[in-house]
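The instructor's notes for this session suggest beginning with a concrete chain rather than abstract definitions. Hand out the sequence below and ask the class to guess, before any prediction is shown, which regions might be ordered.
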Amino acid sequence: MLKDILEEKHCFKLVCGAGNEDVETVRRLVYLYALAGCRFFDLSANEEIVDAVLETLHGAGIYDAYICVSVGISGDPHCNKAVIDYDKCINCGSCESVCPQGAIHYAKVKKTKCIGCGRCWKVCPRMAISYISEEKNLSEVLPQLIKKGIDCIEFHVIGQDEDEIFSKWKYINEIFDGMLSICVSRGKLGDEALIERIEKMIKCREPYSTIIQADGFPMSGGDDDYKTTLQAVATAEIVQNAKLPVYLMLSGGTNSKTTELARMCGINYNAVAIGSYARKIVKKYIERTDFWSNQNVAEDALNIAKPLVDSVIL
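After discussion, reveal the predicted structure:
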């Protein structure tokens, strides 16, 4: 059970991205990290994605993996998609060069690849890039995914619309009796308000039926240093100090230094979720046209991915 690997306190979760709906890319990421020892996968709440991942895992003979799907509220950065204003765009290529997903080509955005990370917006010299929120309609997507046997639903509550948050949270609890994960960040809340929100959300839940994903800086883990992962550890400490009956997961800026820094700071975590950094280090292999046909490609990528997984699970 998912609960078991959380109790062991050595759980690695691969974050493919709530907005990442490029089926082939997700298939390759899951296949690679499953071979590296990962058994917990965070996916877009997309039926095609979940089907592809289950097929990939079972095809590799892996039946002990757990699937989590992520949903959010309006304005959550994980639900955003980049939009380019062509009246302002000068086709300079700056956005394309910084996109970690390869979602922009010749100033055109491939929405299935865009994860709303904000990097393109930061570098655009003409302010030609904005974002639209494409959060899922929960009543349309979740019932079908639950029928497929997903193991966890993650709810991103990075925002201040309490009515929307608790309305959606109530619905999720009504239709799903499995493990739930709440992704929280200090970006728009003070420390006390953050804990108050969590306490209110878990009030209706059985003890240790909820994961709190302490999101330092969402989608910021491209670099592998202590500074990048510092906020994830700091946010986790706030949750830990509240002594709540929850499982604690570090995320947002996580990398190969996360577990080391967490232990140095006395963080008693149950799991670490790694997305941006995990995807970055294998990107050149994942994009190879011969990924499936050339055994050396997968082996080289595995040699890079496995030490990252081992840094958490060992």
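Then share the key points. The first helix runs from residue 2 to 7. The CA atoms of residues 10 and 163 lie 35 Å apart.
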